[in-house]
Hints:
Blueprint: H1 2-14, E1 16-20, E2 35-39, H2 41-44, E3 53-57, E4 64-71, E5 76-80, E6 83-86, E7 89-90, E8 106-110, E9 115-119, H3 129-132, E10 135-136, E11 140-145
Antiparallel strand pairs: 1-2, 2-11, 3-4, 3-11, 4-9, 5-6, 5-8, 6-7, 9-10
Amino acid sequence: MVVPFLAMLAVRSWLVEPFTVAADSMSPAIPSGSIVFVYKPAAAMGLIRNGMVVAFTSPVDGRTVIKRVIAGEGQRVAIRDSELFVDDVAVSEPFVDHSRIDATYFGPETVPPGRVFVLGDNRAVSIDSRDFGALPLSAIQGSVLTGHQ
């Protein structure tokens, strides 16, 4: 009885942890109330890439939140009339409802070393790197395992 419990605890602590999404910042791809799994080794092994959804500790309130990595260190991020540009190249974002974020502008801003720029898919309500700046890689808890990456 003790061994299975310890094995489950080890998996949850070091490998995969369930997480309930508590906000609409990633909807419609990942709506509030969804249960996702955070794959912890992705952060420790340096596997975080643009387009991945990650879990991290919010610098605003200390809660665990999820957002999409848009750009890594040295890349330049801008939003022009709701269209995302990374290094002056338009990024296809089929998971974003652009009709809800018309006339949004940001940047350009270059991501500092050791950091990533994260955005919520639901840009109209998301508190993300546009508000708190690029996120230190050390704040990332892991990648979110979902079909919406």
